[in-house]
């Protein structure tokens, strides 16, 4: 009887041992089937840079791991697995795919009839005006004008008196030597007037806006009979866009996209910002023109408080060179003359289908109202970046208080972005979009500010807004 009892105990022990072994084997098989060893032990394909170690040790494959997000940056609201699934089924690929070039390529090479610059008849001084991109366009126009009137172009003087009060000189923003050398077969360019002409009488002229070749060859070139120096008091919009000889148009393009390169320190800083954005994966550059000067100038007050609207009106009335003072904000908005608000941008991106962990670079100055107007966009897209988040105070210190140089950094990051989205069709938006086309038809998405209801996405925007309002109301 005692032996039978021990036999039963031995049998039970064997059964338990086999059961435990079986469970362990099944668990091991599950790990290898569901999580292949190659995925468990996979290491990053490159080591993070020193800056990435302190700012962002993030995956380079469209996923953002919350545990590794730096404390001063927002964490992704979705697990990386959700983005990976979306990527596999192709929904994201379609959003990021660039448009076809349809066999269009840059056409900037001069024709066989184009000759080196003829003998100079005098010197052209140029005082540029406006912000960075307004000055860029004006400089390119003045290169063409110098060619038309057989002038030696003196390195242009940048605007120091505008709203931005930037003291930068040409060489602080642009690569001066590259500019001169790139144009040597087109126009003679010098850094300054010869000493013997420093005190010579100048013909100061406001060139007529949107003028063609005839105006410069006849009316302006006639000034050489009395003067050795012609000074252009303004540079913006002085040359016609149409009906110019092809070689003059090509010269403008060469000046804009080849000769007018940013200063080395700006190029280096811009490249660093681009690399840091790319560590998050493909990114959108959002030109969010919801800035105080833009809203005051345009008279746009949608989404603002009465106190904010009054402040902007006072700025417009006290800015003497802004001619239009009395503006109807409702009419402005209905005509599409207003930038989208940050909240509208969030709705727009959601309706297009961009997931909430999409990296977005904010290419703009200080957003009017700060957090009070950015909170909704930040809630939808926590990975909002700008210069101040991507770079340290020490790295940005050389550019602070120089609006043109800071704008140049935004320009570089925007040109290199996977998708560029302007919220207002101003100088920068047009300049960046044109540059992106020149470099290979990179994707740009321009919202219809006049009437978003004309788009197929309008129903999705309305649905998203209704759901958002419900959620906010439900949360009290």
Automatic annotation (TrEMBL):
Protein name: O-fucosyltransferase family protein
Domain of life: Eukaryota
Keyword check for Signal: no
Compartments in which it is found: Membrane
GO cellular component, one term: membrane
GO molecular function, one term: glycosyltransferase activity
Cytoplasm among keywords: no
Keywords noted in UniProt: Carbohydrate metabolism, Fucose metabolism, Glycoprotein, Glycosyltransferase, Membrane, Signal-anchor, Transferase, Transmembrane, Transmembrane helix
Organism: Capsicum annuum (Capsicum pepper)
Family of the protein in this entry: Belongs to the glycosyltransferase GT106 family.
């Amino acid at each position: 009887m005692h032996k039978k009892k021990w036999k039963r105990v031995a049998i039970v022990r064997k059964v338990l041992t086999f059961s435990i072994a079986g469970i362990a084997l099944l668990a091991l098989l599950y790990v290898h089937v569901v999580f292949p060893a190659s995925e468990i032990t996979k290491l990053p394909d490159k080591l993070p840079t020193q800056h990435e170690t302190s700012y962002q040790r993030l995956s380079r494959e469209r996923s953002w791991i919350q545990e590794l997000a730096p404390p001063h940056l927002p964490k992704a609201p979705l697990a990386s697995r959700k983005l990976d699934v979306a990527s596999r089924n192709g929904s994201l690929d379609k959003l990021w795919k660039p448009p076809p070039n349809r066999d269009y390529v840059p056409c900037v090479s001069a024709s066989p009839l184009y000759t080196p610059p003829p003998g100079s008849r005098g010197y052209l001084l140029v005082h540029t005006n406006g912000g960075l991109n307004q000055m860029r366009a004006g400089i390119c126009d003045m290169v063409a004008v110098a060619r038309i009137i057989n002038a030696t172009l003196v390195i242009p003087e940048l605007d120091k008196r505008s709203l931005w009060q930037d003291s930068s000189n040409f060489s602080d923003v642009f690569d001066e030597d590259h500019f001169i050398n790139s144009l040597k077969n087109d126009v003679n360019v010098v850094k300054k007037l010869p000493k013997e002409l420093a005190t010579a009488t100048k013909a100061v002229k406001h060139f007529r806006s949107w003028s063609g070749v005839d105006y410069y060859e006849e009316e302006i070139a006639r000034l050489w009979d009395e003067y050795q120096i012609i000074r252009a008091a303004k540079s913006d919009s002085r040359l016609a866009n149409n009906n110019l000889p092809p070689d003059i148009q090509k010269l403008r393009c060469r000046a804009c996209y080849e000769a007018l390169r940013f200063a080395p320190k700006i190029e280096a800083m811009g490249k660093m910002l681009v690399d840091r954005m790319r560590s998050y994966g493909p990114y959108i550059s959002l030109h969010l023109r919801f800035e105080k000067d833009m809203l005051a100038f345009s008279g746009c007050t949608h989404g603002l408080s009465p106190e904010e609207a009054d402040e902007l009106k006072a700025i417009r009335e006290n800015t003497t060179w802004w001619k239009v003072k009395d503006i109807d904000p409702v009419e402005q908005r209905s005509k599409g003359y207003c930038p989208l608000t940050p909240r509208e941008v969030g709705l727009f991106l959601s309706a297009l289908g961009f997931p909430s962990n999409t990296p977005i670079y904010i290419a703009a100055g200080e957003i009017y109202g700060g957090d009070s107007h950015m909170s909704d966009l930040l809630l939808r897209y926590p990975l909002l970046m700008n210069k101040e988040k991507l770079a340290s105070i020490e790295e940005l210190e050389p550019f602070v208080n120089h609006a043109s140089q800071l704008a140049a950094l935004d320009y570089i990051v925007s040109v290199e972005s996977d998708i560029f989205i302007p919220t207002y069709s101003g100088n920068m938006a047009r300049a960046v979009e044109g540059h992106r086309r020149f470099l290979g038809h990179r994707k740009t998405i321009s919202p219809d500010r006049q009437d978003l209801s004309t788009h197929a996405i309008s129903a999705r925007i309305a649905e998203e807004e209704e759901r958002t309002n419900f959620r906010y109301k439900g949360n009290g």
